[in-house]
Amino acid sequence: MSGSTLLNVSNIGGTMSSCPYTWVVNKLGLNRIKNEGHPDREARHLNVRVVRDGEERVLVSLPAKSARWLIELIPQDVVDKIYEEKIPLEQIQKDLAEMKRLIPHKIFLLEEDERSVSVWLD
Most buried among 44, 57, 87, 117, by the most CB within 10 A? Predict the structure, then answer.
């Protein structure tokens, strides 16, 4: 895929494993969080931002619980690119659906020459 980058991102430093999602799950302890809850605050919003040709075209904030149906909210061409990059979107959605509490974190960032799509919980 020329000119595009897809990242499953986290602000936590460290060495990235071969699968970015696995790395994020391990670093954030999402398996523990979905089973036990998290002591920090719960996310209130699922945010989607699209920038095309340097101009913000979409900035939408949905209830955080919308993340549990993430695949249904993402445009199909973006979903296709996520799968092309071997990011396990279905597993990401499944993990979000199984979490007792949704915590604030970046879910993914897709950057192309002409557009950027970022999705995060806050």
Answer: 117
